[in-house]
Amino acid sequence: MEIASKYEPGSVEDRWYSYWTAHGFFRSTPNDKEPYTIVIPPPNVTGVLHMGHMLNNTIQDVLVRRARLQGKNACWVPGMDHASIATEAKVVAKLKAEGMQKADLTREAFLEHAWEWTEKYGGVILDQLKKLGCSCDWERTKFTMDEDMSASVIKVFVDLYRQGLIYRGYRMVNWDPEALTTLSDEEVNYEEKQGLLYYIGYAIEDSDERLTIATTRPETILGDTAICVNPNDGRYAHLKGKRAIVPICNRSVPIIMDDYVDMDFGTGCLKVTPAHDENDKKLGDAHNLEVIDILNPNGSLNSFGLHYEGKDRFVVRKEIAKELKEGGFLVKTEQHMNKVGTSERTKAVIEPRLSDQWFLKMEDLAKPALDAVLTTGEVKLFPKKFENTYRHWMENIRDWNISRQLWWGQQIPAYYYGDAPHDFVVAQTPEEALKLAREQSGRADLAASDLRQDPDVLDTWFSSWLWPISVFNGVLEPENEEIQYYYPTNDLVTGPDILFFWVARMIVAGYGLRDQRPFENVYLTGLVRDKQRRKMSKSLGNSPDALKLIEEFGADGVRVGLLLSSAAGNDLMFDEALCQQGKNFANKIWNAFRLVKGWETSDAPQPEASKLGLAWYTARLNKTLAEIEDHFGKYRISDALMAIYKLVWDDFCSWLLEIVKPAYQQPIDKATHGQVIALFEENLKLLHPFMPFITEEVWQHTKAREEKESLCVAQWPKVQQPDHGLMDQFNEAAEVISGIRTIRKEKNIAQKEVLELKVLHAEEASAGLNPIVLKLANLGSIERVQTAPEGSLSFRVGSNEYFVPIAGAIDVEAEKKKIQEELEYTEGFLRSVEKKLGNERFVNNAPEQVVANERKKVADAQAKIQTLQKSLEALG
User: What is the per-residue pLDDT across 293-322, written as a single tens digit (0 to 9) for each?
Assistant: First the structure.
């Protein structure tokens, strides 16, 4: 294969990705090897690759590729989530643009449009992940609406219902007026928003007295069915048993007493609107109050809104405030910070709403999942700090509202045959439902046409909580070969923002359905932020185009750029300069390879310097490998990459290649060349999980290989005991070389000019690597001496002092004059600082830090004077 002069990622990446997939290197089937399994956090079917996906999937690919190199049967299952709310919203918007309304379509017609959308846009993100180098088993790609996946969801629903864990209840729920569906508590984000507190006067029936009530939602007065005061509040004791008149609608409502009311908030009087507040509903139930719902599903007012019927709730808020003021009911308004719940998906302000919904009892199901993380450690969170968040959520868990008022998703398998609340059956198929309905109703004449399936669908998370089980068909066939082999999975990589949404629920499902953990380790990445610490988003315009980054810097460069700044659980401050650093590293590897590959070889004996250098680098490689294994064990992926980065850039390229490099236009001995290639290949193995493309390209060039042999399935290096003594010697030798190079640079002595080195008080241990020092410092000799030679410049390493005679290399007299002038200047500077410190007034009155800085100047000047005096002595 011809070697290009420059590494061009664009010409390499597609070729090697096609090669890997064509040879089935990513394919996994059960065998006698140890399995290593990861399931991808399924992105939304409507999704496109963004920086969060880039980070998350790069980390997964690093773990999977390393496991494959370790000889494990690595299985990375890709797939997509049908994302009920998000996808339905996109389909509705598309229909609207085409002049159609969802309400005008049958369910079947709408689902045809949804599947058409899915087939057109679904899977785009998975194709984009291939550009990043993700080594998924693409033949295993799953979609949460696949026939078998949906069947799994329905079976679990039916089983849990029959165990008494799923029930239907009339409850206060979070209602999204834009998506027209209920949401779980976890899908509501609470934001502090500046609003108004409205003080409204309510007349007391058959009295001239008025009660003033404070509310942030004046439009809801139209649904008021009581006024509540604290029975311990002496201000209102006389109102017990009386009634008040609600402004505008003129409804007479009872004044009730309940210690729920905070006497210190507002006026100590509470308007009670059971249909529009969860706490008001509890009060309503306790006091047998009427429930009046004033809102339509879309957030506009219904007929109970009187002359505001059909108007949006926020429009009414302004208009009713004006009407209250004109009618003399509005006492005053105040600025007020209020926590407002918004939909995670649509950002619409949530309305509390009473509704018939399906719920899953969570309290008992959550206990094994809580113990698995906090007691037994069967499931480990990285970083550990997230255990407290997990504990808080799981100890305060509420029943899960699993029904959604949508059409896109798994339709709830409940079938109604009458009008009474309990006239329904739950079954996996319509045929089974009909049989059960006949038995339950006692009506043998019931026909299939008499059954009405519940129109709601299940919450998307109710399908994805089964993901590690259902992708291996472990629900429908609990004992099949694949689920027995691949489950429990090993690692899960995801963001902390779905720790409860998805991670906790999968743990619940694992123990609830199989009495097993779904995975062993959960690696929680940070969020990707820009340099100003802002979360990346389309609305801010601060999120770069992921594919353009790959085009500009290469997939390897982008992967390195992301990982170098990504510590577990900490947010990543993304900067494109990091991708440039990754690209530069790829170029460094390529240039090192071209240098080594370009050397001619000969049968000459191996130089001592090369032998020593190779032994040292082997020790460094083994030490780094041990560090890498430790980092991987603690999920410090960026630390593992940095260790390899330094090994290759500093130790291999900057040191070893310089040590073994032959003289200009001279060949290298075959023994050294072979060993350098072998060590280069070990580097490539360590780098491959992080930079798969360039490492495969170089690997395929290093020597003749069978076509099927790929770095992708090579063998991960085994940790050997490193020679620490040799590494310590090398560190000292490197300091000596650095000292000589500093003298050359400062005194402008050319590298090609041969120098001699004299060593005073030489330790025997430091002499072992003299051949390397001789070569890299271009020395004629290294000699131990008993006294400091004249006409030399010196430096110290450890307990040894090194002298470089420079007579003939530089003008000694001119150098002495230069040093003398610098010495006199420094001595003058020292005297001036000492004089300042001798002034008691200055020392006593100046800030402590200023005095400390002056004292540091004294110490620095004294050290410099000592060095300059030694240099003068050495020059004679």
Answer: 999 999 999 999 899 999 999 999 999 999
pLDDT at position 808 over 70: no
Q: What is the largest CA-CA distance in the chain?
A: 120
Which two structure tokens, joined as six digits, stand for 110?
A: 């709408």
Measure CA 792 to chain center.
57
Same domain, 188 and 317: yes
Q: Is residue 830 part of a domain?
A: yes
Contact 798, 773 (CB under 8 A): no
Residues 224-264 pLDDT 10s: 999 999 999 989 989 988 999 999 999 999 999 998 998 88
3-state secondary structure of 839: coil
The DSSP bridge pattern shows strands 414-416 and 792-797 to be: unpaired
3-class secondary structure per residue, 300-345: EECHHHHHHCCCEHHHHHHHHHHHHHHCCCEEEEEEEEEEEEEECC
The whole domain housing 847 covers 812-876
615-631 b/e (C-beta count within 10 Å ≥ 16 → b): ebbbbbbbbbbebbeeb
- Let me know whether 773 and 664 are in one domain: no
* Chain mean pLDDT for the chain: 91
CATH number of the domain residue 296 falls in: 3.90.740.10
- Tokens 């509704």 appear where? 355
Q: 757-777 b/e with 16+ CB inside 10 Å = b?
A: bbbbebeeebeebbbbbbbbb
- If one counts the domains in the chain, the total is 4
- Confidence (pLDDT) at 819: 84
- Cβ proximity of 294 and 307 under 8 Å: no
Say whether both 325 and 275 belong to one domain: yes
Residue 843 lies in a domain: yes
What is the torsion angle, in degrees rounded to the nearest 10, for the CA atoms of residue 548, residue 552, residue 556 and residue 557? -110
**At residue 278, what is the residue type?**
E
> From CA 798, how far away is CA 802, in angstroms rounded?
10
Residue 388 resides in a domain: no
- CATH number of the domain residue 854 falls in: 1.10.287
Question: How far is the C-alpha of 378 from the C-alpha of 518, rounded, in Å?
Answer: 10
Would you say 48 and 128 are in contact if contact means Cβ atoms under 8 Å apart?
yes
At residue 568, the pLDDT reads 53
CATH number of residue 802's parent domain = 3.30.2320.20
Q: Indicate whether 312 and 241 sit together in one domain.
A: yes
CB of 163 within 8 A of CB of 102? no
Is residue 809 over pLDDT 70? no
Q: How many CA atoms lie within 13 A of 236 on its CB side?
A: 28
pLDDT band at 470 (very low <50, low <70, confident <90, very high): very high
Q: Which helix (H) or strand (E) holds 617?
A: helix 608-633
Measured in whole angstroms, the distance separating CA 736 from the mean position of its chain's CA atoms is 44
Q: Is 155:476 a contact under the CB 8 Å cutoff? A: yes
Both tokens assigned to 576? 């494109």
Asked whether residue 265 falls in the same domain as residue 189, the answer is yes
pLDDT band at 538 (very low <50, low <70, confident <90, very high): low
Give the pLDDT confidence score for residue 537 in this predicted structure: 64
Question: Of 351, 378, 396, which residue sits at a domain end?
Answer: 351
Assigned domain for 189 exists: yes
Verify that 272 and 244 share a domain, yes or no.
Answer: yes
Q: Are 291 and 189 within 8 A, CB to CB?
A: no
Please check whether residue 804 is in contact with residue 839, taking contact to mean a CB–CB distance below 8 angstroms.
no
Angle at 185 between CA 182 and CA 188, to 5 degrees: 80
**864 and 752 in one domain?**
no
Backbone Cα Rg of the chain: 38
CATH number at residue 569: 1.10.730.10
Q: Which of 792, 810, 828 is the last residue of a domain?
A: 810
DSSP structural state of residue 265: S
What would the two tokens of residue 691 be? 């930079």
- Rounded Cα–Cα distance for residues 586 and 559 (Å): 11
Clarify whether residues 338 and 256 are in a common domain: yes
Give helix then strand counts, H and E, for the chain: 27, 31
